[in-house]
Amino acid sequence: MLNVEQLNQYYGSSHTLRGVSLDLQKGECLALLGRNGVGKTTLLKCLMGVLPVAGGHVKLNDRDITRLKPHERAALGIAYVPQGREIFARLTVEENLLMGMAVKPGRQASKIRGEVFELFPVLKEMLHRRGGDLSGGQQQQLAIARALLADPKLIILDEPTEGIQPSIIKDIGRVIRLLRERGDMAILLCEQYFDFAHELADKFLVLSRGEVVAAGTQAEMSGEDIKRHLAV
Ligand SMILES: Nc1ncnc2c1ncn2[C@@H]1O[C@H](COP(=O)(O)OP(=O)(O)OP(=O)(O)O)[C@@H](O)[C@H]1O
């Protein structure tokens, strides 16, 4: 599904991503871990095409998408839930959700699938509220729901638990688990909250100073192994 080969990225003279490679299949959840400032968000932005790369390749289902623009990647089935959520504060919940459907060419952006309200019932109650009036946790749920309405093949989540109350973290975890069990998309989950990521992911990739310092499956890496790499 997603293959990343030897990705390199610079901010000016600062070499932020150093030969990062990864592989993610349909039905899998990969947790991207690492301390603050190691390059996680930068990697996700490069995968979405928000930032250009200096070298390497990004492939989606064997198609090289390294030079495609973000909206072209979205149309091919990559959905991105950025850190900080970036919902439209002045638009209603319903309008925000309709935005998620607009990326599909030819799709009539008129009817929101009931499935998202099953996943996130609170959004149905809040349909006519402005996005900016929702709590942080509700905004995060809205951002994930909006991404799902694009019918992604790959969903990229950047720290979905950041600044969110425990009960909503549980709800978000339940939805990610359900999506994983459904098996029809790949999930790339960037997280600082280790226990959350560890419960959900099939495999792990740990970054340190822009480099992959550890990678493996649940069976190959214990929680202690991963934590040791995170402490370096
Ligand atoms: N626009 C930018 N211009 C220059 N340097 C940047 C820019 N954005 C990030 N950086 C630097 O690049 C490095 C990687 O940042 P990045 O945000 O990718 O890290 P991160 O692992 O996602 O951290 P966090 O967990 O804090 O979000 C950091 O040293 C950061 O200061």
Automatic annotation (TrEMBL):
Q: Which GO molecular function entries does the Swiss-Prot or TrEMBL record give?
A: ATP binding; ATP hydrolysis activity; branched-chain amino acid transmembrane transporter activity
Any one Pfam family here would be ABC_tran
Start and end residues of each ABC transporter domain: 2-232
One of this protein's GO BP terms? L-amino acid transport
Keywords on this record?
A: Amino-acid transport, ATP-binding, Cell membrane, Membrane, Nucleotide-binding, Transport
Which superkingdom, per the lineage?
Answer: Bacteria
* Annotated InterPro entries: AAA+_ATPase, ABC_transporter-like_ATP-bd, ABC_transptr_urea_ATP-bd_UrtE, BCAA_Transport_ATP-bd_LivF, P-loop_NTPase
Q: Tell me the SUPFAM superfamilies matching this sequence.
A: P-loop containing nucleoside triphosphate hydrolases
Family to which this protein belongs? Belongs to the ABC transporter superfamily.
Protein name as annotated: Urea ABC transporter ATP-binding subunit UrtE
| Gene giving rise to this polypeptide | urtE
